[in-house]
Amino acid sequence: MSDSLANRAVQAAPQTVAAVDLGSNSFHMIVVRDDAGKLHVVDRLKESVRLAAGLSADRTLDADSADRALACLERFGQRLRGLAPGHVRAVGTNTLRRARDADAFLARASEALGHPVEVIYGVEEARLIYGGVIQDLGREQPRRLVIDIGGGSTELIIGEMGAPQLVESISLGAVVQMQRFFGGGKITRKSWQAAVTDARLTLEPIARAYRDAGWDIAIGASGSVKSILRATGAQSADETITPAGLKSLGRAIVKAGRLDKLDLPGVSDDRKAIFPGGLAVLTGIFESLGIEAMRVSDKALREGVVADLLGRLHDRDARESGVLAAMNRYDVDQAQAERVAKTAKRLLGDYADENDDAYASGMALRLLRWAALLHEIGLAISHKGYHKHGEYILRNADLQGFSRTDQALLATLVRLHRGRFRADLIEALPAEWRALARQLVIVLRLAVILHRGRNPKLAPPVRLRVGKREIRLVGDSHWLAERPLTQADLDREAELLGRADIRLVSRTDD
């Protein structure tokens, strides 16, 4: 069989992927087989962990909650054994975004699951939720308002067909609202009104923008919204949540007075424990945005993660679009960035260890390319210290498709592409990325130096020879001799790297 036929056969073979959602209330896992674009759900698992309830006032995760979470991930990990690296994506949401000790927990969580666990920012969570929900409802009505109420945050998205246009993640969640207003399971008229008012106050800064944008159909996602639909007495998933239904439920929970006296159709004991909090959030949303009816989707974040993961496996990586959007927004010189990226990629080929998972999955090359494309993003602020400005932007901007770890890696590469080689910044990265990040930084620094003249026709005839004790930049015997400024730059770079115990030699001819 020819190579091209073999490649097509591999692409046509069914692929199994999985998504794990470490939510603030529940952990979910979905395993999906992709058979030539037709998705078949192979398995689903869900456990109530209530991670948000274990987050203290100083944002420390208590031991009992962490142990529950890790035990759950070990069970999920047993189901995921045998799935290839890169075919599983596990994401943490609001509670892990807020936790002070998140990094230590994530290391233990990754070990328990057997796959990396990463934290995503709120706007990225909203984008993924939208990508999951639009697979289910609203195909006939292109403009959608999607609401997802989690344990610690609520995501609101207005999108046109497949493209999110207005995206927010706000600090409103069913678990958090329960803790703030219904402590001890007691429900009074006063606490109920306070919980709804608090939701409306939180929504006030964004409500007008959403009302002005408008939508054709409102869609709710997540366990809280689904339980509210069931509690209204709905017999079918095609029915809707209405303001009248929410008011009736509000009266019912106030009348019950306590959680243990609530008797709601189709609401499990686990869900009942946070039901008033979720109901208060949705009631506040309806009142703030003027929603008249809401359909309910069975899909949410995990389905969006699966769609995004399959895109990565089929060369439709949303992160590439996020990088290009950032380049456009900050007016990056794309031609220069592409030249640097091309040379950096070629130099990395002399470094690469094909046995490394990051190389095998293509992540090393992609990360290097994105860093090269964005290495001058800080010029939008100032030329002086622009690598530091670039780091700040990339650590704090909303980059489509990127997790918090992805952005930290990208920001570190951009920070270190010039100036002092800060080994401490590399040591601050996850352990599994440190050695690779060191390599990526070195080739990016060299590529930037080689293209400092911004000559559009320049293709430096050089390559690296990497030894145990030194790195040699070698090439045409006359090339460097004809470029004394480049040689001076490389000599200065050798001094900077030498301070970090990295020996660079650039005068040896090939």
UniProtKB/TrEMBL annotation:
Residues covered by the Ppx/GppA phosphatase N-terminal domain: 30-311
Keyword tRNA processing in record: no
Keywords: Hydrolase
Domain (Ppx/GppA phosphatase C-terminal) ranges: 319-493
InterPro entries for this protein: ATPase_NBD, GppA/Ppx_hydrolase, Ppx_GppA_C, Ppx_GppA_N, PyroPPase_GppA_Ppx
Cross-referenced PANTHER family: EXOPOLYPHOSPHATASE (PTHR30005), RETROGRADE REGULATION PROTEIN 2 (PTHR30005:SF0)
Protein name from the UniProt record: Ppx/GppA phosphatase
Protein's organism: Salinisphaera dokdonensis CL-ES53
